[in-house]
């Protein structure tokens, strides 16, 4: 089984990060059939005994559509308004789809300050543990974009998901994106690199920014996430979130996308 647990728990625990690109259509609407497919796969993993924590982007992208922005607004207040409008839309959809499968969502909106304070960090950690023990809840985490500002901002969910993976002592972090993995060239083209065991200058040079109007960070922040997860001994895999049954394939141990396995073991 690809989800072999290294933490002494009886079931594997994965943090799965869903990027804006795989949750929305080219027009910026939430992509209902695609989100349904992802929810089905997560429900399948839950039935097979996995513990899943989601980190979901898509609030700003969803809000942009509703507020009539075709391009990402520059003004922070406008971005925050998009997040305020988009986040409940996203959660409503997740709840609707998960509840059809006997599961329910639990929302956690975090800022950098929450992870920087020991008390707040431990509170978030305990809340997630409490939810996972019940079995039927899917914690869904996003940055609290409505109150975040430059100094207290993660700014991207790639790094946030790596911090979350470390917080919940996940067995693996999976980043599902609209690219199939780390590719050879920094414009997101070329062959996929299947395994990264060390982040060398050559690997860093492959990583470029996003080309999307709604996403943040591109491959640069995914490499940073791999480093954060790696320093907690957690492997990270980047894979194509639109590929058929991608989570089941990863669970069965199939080699897909790019696996970052960076040394330090827990
Ligand atoms: N070496 C690379 N391999 C794959 N994608 C890359 C690479 N360098 C830059 N990219 C870009 O990263 C982007 C994917 O990240 P991003 O748009 O932030 O997705 P997400 O919303 O899933 O986080 C794509 O636009 C792609 O062109
Ligand atoms: N917190 C933001 C997402 C930020 C982000 O990292 O986006 P992405 O690059 O699509 O994962 C939102 O919900 O729109």
TrEMBL record:
<comment type="function">
    <text>Catalyzes the transfer of a phosphate group to glutamate to form L-glutamate 5-phosphate.</text>
</comment>
<protein>
    <recommendedName>
        <fullName>Glutamate 5-kinase</fullName>
        <ecNumber>2.7.2.11</ecNumber>
    </recommendedName>
</protein>
<dbReference type="InterPro" id="IPR036393">
    <property type="entry name" value="AceGlu_kinase-like_sf"/>
</dbReference>
<keyword id="KW-0067">ATP-binding</keyword>
<feature type="binding site">
    <location>
        <position position="57"/>
    </location>
    <ligand>
        <name>substrate</name>
    </ligand>
</feature>
<feature type="binding site">
    <location>
        <position position="157"/>
    </location>
    <ligand>
        <name>substrate</name>
    </ligand>
</feature>
<comment type="similarity">
    <text>Belongs to the glutamate 5-kinase family.</text>
</comment>
<feature type="binding site">
    <location>
        <position position="17"/>
    </location>
    <ligand>
        <name>ATP</name>
    </ligand>
</feature>
<keyword id="KW-0547">Nucleotide-binding</keyword>
<dbReference type="Pfam" id="PF00696">
    <property type="entry name" value="AA_kinase"/>
</dbReference>
<dbReference type="InterPro" id="IPR019797">
    <property type="entry name" value="Glutamate_5-kinase_CS"/>
</dbReference>
<comment type="pathway">
    <text>Amino-acid biosynthesis; L-proline biosynthesis; L-glutamate 5-semialdehyde from L-glutamate: step 1/2.</text>
</comment>
<dbReference type="InterPro" id="IPR001057">
    <property type="entry name" value="Glu/AcGlu_kinase"/>
</dbReference>
<dbReference type="InterPro" id="IPR005715">
    <property type="entry name" value="Glu_5kinase/COase_Synthase"/>
</dbReference>
<keyword id="KW-0028">Amino-acid biosynthesis</keyword>
<dbReference type="GO" id="GO:0055129">
    <property type="term" value="P:L-proline biosynthetic process"/>
</dbReference>
<keyword id="KW-0418">Kinase</keyword>
<keyword id="KW-0641">Proline biosynthesis</keyword>
<dbReference type="GO" id="GO:0005829">
    <property type="term" value="C:cytosol"/>
</dbReference>
<dbReference type="InterPro" id="IPR041739">
    <property type="entry name" value="G5K_ProB"/>
</dbReference>
<keyword id="KW-0808">Transferase</keyword>
<feature type="domain" description="Aspartate/glutamate/uridylate kinase">
    <location>
        <begin position="13"/>
        <end position="240"/>
    </location>
</feature>
<keyword id="KW-0963">Cytoplasm</keyword>
<dbReference type="GO" id="GO:0005524">
    <property type="term" value="F:ATP binding"/>
</dbReference>
<dbReference type="GO" id="GO:0004349">
    <property type="term" value="F:glutamate 5-kinase activity"/>
</dbReference>
<dbReference type="InterPro" id="IPR011529">
    <property type="entry name" value="Glu_5kinase"/>
</dbReference>
<dbReference type="InterPro" id="IPR001048">
    <property type="entry name" value="Asp/Glu/Uridylate_kinase"/>
</dbReference>
<feature type="binding site">
    <location>
        <position position="145"/>
    </location>
    <ligand>
        <name>substrate</name>
    </ligand>
</feature>
